Amino acid sequence: MKVNNFSHINTFMGMDSSYDEADVVVYGVGFDGTTSNRPGTRFASSSMRPEFYGLETYSPMLDLDLENFKICDIGDLELSIGDTKKVLDEIYESTKEIVSDEKIPFMIGGEHLVTLPAFKAVYEKYEDVCVLHFDAHTDLREEYNNNKNSHATVIKRIWDLVGDNRIYQFGIRSGTKEEFDFSLKQNHTYMEVGSIDTFKDIVDSLNGKKVYLTIDLDVLDPSIFPGTGTPEPGGITYREFQNVFSILKNSNIKLIGCDIVELSPDYDNTNVSTVTACKILRELSLVLCDNLNK
Questions:
Q1: d(C-alpha 10, C-alpha 65), whole Å
Q2: What does the pLDDT look like over 77-115, one tens digit per residue?
């Protein structure tokens, strides 16, 4: 499947460069086949595109403008819904094409399992990559519902690839005792429980390294982000989270891939969750583009 056959779609505002000239490629992955609570993440990117036009292309916090960068929105991948293995292969192949073309993939899920094939494609090219992970949930189970590939196992599957001292988790506040022990006692991953206060220190420690960023939007508190399948009280505010963008912009890490996942727009009829996801998309797209110029 060629990822640059996208002439039929409406693009995100400011992301209408051609595929060939683009530095960053944005694409939707509408899959929630292993969702264990409330489904609906398959509608995330299609709900975000019209809401994105309520924003501006300029970010005053970052002093960057989408109009000054080359970003291509190729739309939503065509997926074989109902066949999880085939879907994962399709995501992998599409992301691999983007990476092979020397572009930065920015994926919009979908449930969190979609990160696994996208990350695999990036990892095959950059085996020394580290992972920054924002989430309410550990996602470190060995299996869930008798399935090793699940939104609840995705970070464990990534750990299977990269091993210790490569995964850094923030905002985590839900999981099994075994998962927390795996991280906090056995030190297989770095984990900050319930907050993101150490993010800058970790980013500083990764100076010069290649990094993949995955953001489960339920890291935000459900009082401000109810539109998600497994809301978990005790999360962070958007104002706290926006510091992440400035930290990344001013860092010396090399961002080589990114995703945001787990927006379920139909659970928030105000559309505020969708708008929040859009703003995170804008800020991170700007950071990714700016990072390329370092």
A1: 20
A2: 999 988 999 999 999 999 999 999 999 999 999 999 999
Specify the pTM: 0.95
Start-to-end CA span in the chain (Å): 32
- Each domain of the chain, given as residue ranges in start order, spans 24-292
Tokens of 274: 């969708």
Which residues are paired to 261 by β-bridges? 216
Closest to 171 (Cα-Cα) out of 143, 139, 123: 139
Closest CA to 28 of 222, 237, 265, 224: 265
Tens digit of each residue's pLDDT (9 = 90 or more) over 253-287:
999 999 999 999 999 999 999 999 999 999 999 99
What is residue 36's predicted lDDT score, i.e. its pLDDT? 80
Number of H helices, E strands in the chain: 9, 10
Give the integer Cα–Cα distance in Å for 227 and 146. Answer: 27
Q: Name 181's Cβ contacts closer than 8 Å, sequence gap at least 6.
A: none
Residue type, 182: F
Between CA 193 and CA 95 the distance in angstroms is 31
| Pairing state between β 254-261 and 210-216 | parallel
Strand partners, 169: 133, 191
User: Is 3.40.800.10 the CATH number for 24-292?
Assistant: yes
CA-based nearest residue to 111, from 33, 213, 173: 33
Which ranges in the chain belong to alpha helices (H)?
44-52, 84-100, 115-125, 154-162, 177-180, 199-205, 238-241, 243-249, 272-292
Name the token pair of 260.
Answer: 């945001």
Structure tokens at 135: 């989430």
